[in-house]
Structure formats: structure tokens, C-alpha cells
Amino acid sequence: MERLIYQQEDSVSVVKTAQQTQAIRVQNLEGLCTQKGVIKQMNIHRSLFGIACRAAAFSFLMAGTALLAQTTSAASAVKAPVLLASESASADLALASSSSSSSTDADAAADSSSGARFNLLGSTQPPPRRRYGRPNYSSGNTNKDGSEKYTFLGGMGMTSPIGNTHKYETPSYGFQFGGGRNFNKVAGLLLQFDYDHFGLQGATLANQTYVYDYCTQADITAGYCTQQGAYKLNNVTQGQLDGNNHVWSFTLNPTFTLPTEGSLGAYAVLGGGFYHKVTNFTVPTVGEYCDYYYGCYEYSANQVIDHYSSNAVGVNGGIGLTYKISKFSNERFYVEARYVFIPNSQRYGLTSQNVGTSFGATYTGANDYPQNSNRTTYIPVKFGIRF
Question: End of a domain among 47, 68, 89?
Fold first, then answer.
């Protein structure tokens, strides 16, 4: 403490001595300038020389004042040690290396990793690039690959019977709708309802009319006719019989989207489910309708006179094309074609070929259209929208 006080007193005395010396120098310079000004009073440049001398004296005074202030601050300031980052890193590395010789293997590994971190301060190499995995878009409505979790469809089109089915039925219309779950961009599962309508061939209606009008032994027993082969009392007039057929189904269909580029897409579908097949035979009839305001009037309509149904488990498969409306939307137009196979259980009954045989003579059942239980094959072609 005493040593510090002595140092402060010495610094104050040095400052005072420097100030006195500076003042004496200034006075001597002013005196010299004044003496030269007297000697050169006759000179026409006397005023200019005096101004220059005063400027020089003022500049010297300012320089001395600045030097004095710098000396005073240097004497009174306490210098603190400054450590550079490189020196600190070197010291830490030396300390880590000296202590690692007496530490365990785990401490040595930690010190070496710390040293590698410090070496990065002076290295010109960039840090190692971080590796990223595939982006994860998983949310409530999307899968990890960004595809939509849920999908829906609705469409309509035409359906055409093929194979043995084409012998009895004609092409007509159909529609479908459904929805399901997409597991990723490739695989999905749809629950679907389809309705496919068919007409009946002219030969089918003619043969069926013959069966209805042919008198069998059962018809004689029931009192519809008096002899075998004659027309029944409730005969169906030729050309008036009509009919239709339809199949509705609930199916579960796995779908597989094929990898494509751009707006066009393609997919394959393969599934199966429950199929219900129905055939109706109708004849025109005249009915009467009465209204409170307009009275009664007659109307013509088809009346169902016979009805057959068959249930079976069937399969389907096909391909489809899609067109994306916009790259920023999920809606797509689609068109698809499938092959449907329904292995119905064959049932025996009367046909135009056996009604006049011994089988027809002894048959007592009520199945006059066993073709409804034949195996069914057809191709529905539908177009619509998926979203």
C-alpha cells in the first residue's frame, strides 16, 4: 500500500516538472519571435512573420498538452493482462495434454475431443456437413411421404357382359362410389359399392315367353291348363314380355399406384366381395290413379311378374388412368376398366330346351329362369373423379 502511494506521488511530481518545462519553452519561443519582429520592423512582411510565429507557438503548445495528457493517463492506469484466443486454446491444450497422462482412458478421450474443438479456431476447413434423412410430412391427413391418408371416388359409365353371360344379357349403364385408406404413395385399400345394370337379349325374352306359356303337368294339376303343351290360362302374349338384370356389390379393393411423371397417372386394382344378382321379368299393364283435384286417369307401366336372385362371392381386377387437374390439388379425373367374375351356384329349372321333355313333364319346382344362377362375367368401364 505504501509503495503504491509513493508511486502516485512520484507520478504527480513528474507531471508538474513537465508542465513547468513546457511553459518555459513557450516563453522563450515568444521572446525570440518578439526580438526578430523588432529587428525587422522596417520589413514589409513583419505582420506575416508575427502571425506565423504565433501559429507555430500555438501548435507546439497543443502538441505538448496532448503528450502530457497521454503521459498522465499511462502513469495512472493499471494494465491488465490480455490473453488471445489462440494463447488460451494453447494453454488449455497444454493443460489437457499434461493432465491426460495421469487420467483414465475416458478422460483422455474427452480431452482429445476438446482439443479437436479448439483446433477448429485456427483451421481453414469448413465444419462437416450435417446429414439429413428423408423429409417427414406425417400429420393427421397425410402420410410420411406426403401422400393423402384418405381417398374417395365417384363415377359412372357403361358395363358390358362377356362370355356366356352375353348370351342372355345386353350392355347397359353402371355407377360406383367408395372411399378408403392410402398407406403411402403406392398402396391403398378401397371399400367400394358398384351397381351394374343389364338388359335382356331378345332370344332370352322369346324363350322365356315359351316357358311361361307351355303347359306342364304341374300346371295341369294347378288348373292353369287342361293338357300338356297347351297355353296356360294366364298366358303371356308374344312380344309383350320384357325384363332386366342388375348386379350390386360391396367389395374391398387393394390399389397400387404406378410411378409416373407429370399430370398423368396409372394404377392397378384387384379385389373381391359380395355380389347380388337380380333378374326381373315384366309385362305392360294399365293402372288407374285418382287425384282429389283432377279426378281419376289411367296410366301404363311395367309390372314385375317374375323375379329371381342369386348371391355369391366374386372377384374383380383391372387398370385405370388418372389425370391430375392441377399440380397443387389432389383431385384427379379417372377412367378404369375391370374384369368381374361371379361364380354363382347353378340351379336347375325349366328352360325352352327341357320344358317339353320328361324332365319338364315331371318338374314341380318354381324356377323358370335357371340362367340367373349361371356364372357371371362382365367388364364395367367407369369414369369419374378421385379426391
Answer: 68
C-alpha to C-alpha distance for 321 and 319, rounded to whole angstroms: 7
- Tell me 214's DSSP state: B
Residues whose CB falls within 8 Å of the CB of residue 318, separated by 6 or more in sequence, listed in order: 268, 269, 336, 337, 338, 339
Whether 227 is in a domain gets the answer: yes
Residue where a domain terminates, one of 38, 68, 98: 68
Would you state the pLDDT for residue 264?
Answer: 93
User: What is the domain count for the chain?
Assistant: 2
Q: Are 269 and 253 in contact (CB under 8 A)?
A: yes
Whether residue 155 sits in one domain with residue 53: no
Q: What's the confidence (pLDDT) of residue 96? A: 39
- Domain, as residue range, for 26: 2-68
Main-chain dihedrals φ then ψ at residue 228, nearest 5 degrees: -65, 135
Beta bridge partners of 386: 153, 332
Q: In the 3-class helix/strand/coil scheme, how is 98-144 assigned residue by residue?
A: HHHCCCCHHHHHHHHHHHHHHHHHHCCCCCCCCCCCCCCCCCCCECC
Q: Which three cell numbers stand for residue 116?
A: 479437436
C-beta separation of 377 from 164 below 8 A: yes
- 31 lies in a domain? yes
What CATH number is associated with residue 242? 2.40.160.20
Whether 266 and 176 map to the same domain: the answer is yes
254 and 378 housed in the same domain: yes
Cα→Cα distances 130→119, 126, 133, 144, Å: 19, 12, 10, 21
Closest CA to 342 of 244, 196, 199: 196
pLDDT reported for residue 156: 97
Mean pLDDT per block of 10 residues along the chain (387 residues) reads 46 52 59 52 57 69 68 51 42 42 47 48 62 61 86 97 96 97 94 98 92 80 73 65 96 94 93 97 87 82 92 97 87 96 92 87 86 96 95
